[in-house]
Please model this.
Amino acid sequence: MPLDNPFASGPSSMSWSCNVKKTYTICCLPGDCIGPEIMAEGKKVLAAVGKRFGCAFECNDALIGGAAIDATGTALPDETLEAARASDAVLLAAVGGPKWDTTDPAAPRPEQGLLKIRKELGLYTNLRPVQIFSALAGASTLKPEVIDGVDMMIVRELTGGLYFGVRERFYDEEGAGTDGKPGQRAYDTLEYREYEIERIARQAFEAARKRRGKVASVDKANVLETSRMWREIVHRVHDADYADVELEDVLVDNAAMQLINRPADFDVVVTENMFGDILSDEAAQITGSLGMLASASLGDGVALFEPSHGSAPDIAGKGIANPLAQILSVEMMLRYSLDMGDAADAIRAAVTAVLDDGLRTRDIADASTPADKILGTAAMGDAVVARLQ
Ligand code: NAD
Model:
């Protein structure tokens, strides 16, 4: 059922303002632990957007991660993939939890669902905006003068590199310990193809043109062959088509330091899969709360939107999770997949207003936050909805 359909009620359909179509089909993947709690708030906000902007969202829930393993034995059932492919966009919450932790390589793991859906939908670009809401500047562990003006976009390659390479663990004589018995050995392979680097570089340069015109390309070209190829291709694309964009190369170890030293200097940061995974969590921490950061995974077809944080098993079921990253993922979905920039701006304004009014979930509250301003998950969703209406 559509969450809200203004066309069902006669003349109110005249308030139609979406310029693409009446009903959007959204594949919703709540996943595990706090996933269903924050997804409920994302849906509330979608319903409010539908009312205000005169369109409807048909949300179809499907299984992924641990919930899917429990129900079907696999982390990404075929029906989920079909539902995702048939939708206008995919909204994911988070997967994983101790229940499904295992070191048995043959056992299904929740994150396999994530990796597979990215691969199957061809989602090779992960965009992670890192911005400071001024009301939350005090939540960062960095000094105010260091984080002042932080506004960067991490562009992470998402379907290549170490996470998708051939890997193996086995016993052999060479790995033998001092007891002379065969020892364990393991390897993972890091491979990139030219076209994978070229297309992610283009995404980064395009993003920079819409922002402050600067790209920092992060690699480990002093050691890794894949990084040397990365650097060569990024420069080739730059020199041929994006010479107007400022480009700097930063070694990944240096990038880890510079993100803390001078975060406001970065505009677009582009990097390969594993470096991007690590650096984007580091950058997220600059803002003071993982619970505030959204991400978009884009390819050439249906795109996927999700919070940057995990499934937070430590607070699952308590009704205290911060739903704002999920709500800001809805913002990104409207902006990047549904061509609803006005609605996306309205969500951002509503979230900013909530924070400016001093409302906080526990993770972003501090000692000075009055108890009556500390909200649970559902109340925070309601507060955003109230400011959207
Ligand atoms: P996490 O992001 O789930 O939690 C880290 C810390 O941040 C915890 O203290 C948690 O309570 C807090 N936190 C996270 N999101 C929050 C929110 N919305 N509101 C308030 N506090 C929040 O990372 P983790 O503990 O390393 O991983 C937990 C599980 O999540 C693991 O199973 C991991 O594999 C999985 N995970 C999933 C994804 C994903 O679905 N994309 C990403 C990362 C980790």
Q: What stands out?
A: The radius of gyration is 22 Å. The chain has twelve helices and twelve strands. The chain has two domains: 1-121+302-389, 124-299.
